[in-house]
Amino acid sequence: MKTRSKGAADADELRPAYNLGKILKEGVQGKYADRYREGTNLILLAPDVAEVFPTDEAVNEALRLVIQLKKLPDAARKTAVKT
4: which of 8, 37, 70, 74 fits an S-S bond (Cβ 3.0–4.6 Å)? Predict the structure, then answer.
């Protein structure tokens, strides 16, 4: 097991410019809790996909269509894809 040198231990210390007591005292607990509970989902689109779907509405519409097609029976799905 390696032991830390004195220099490595000093590197882990908080710099004097950062007053941790002040930071923690002025912080607001749960400041973003409501946003977290909303369940915001962010998805990064590949550049070629983003060119075709310039807005989130366009992406959602296309995905809803895919969901509807997936629910079709196999015979109807093959007909829907051919047209």
Answer: 8
pTM score: 0.43
Stretch (H or E) spanning 76:
helix 74-82
Please state, in angstroms and rounded to a whole number, the distance separating the CA atoms of residues 80 and 74. Answer: 10
Estimate the crossing angle of helix 56-71 against helix 74-82, to 10 degrees: 130
Q: Is the pLDDT of residue 9 over 60?
A: no
- Cα gap 27→33, rounded to integer Å: 14
The structural domains of the chain, with segments of one domain joined by +, span: 6-82
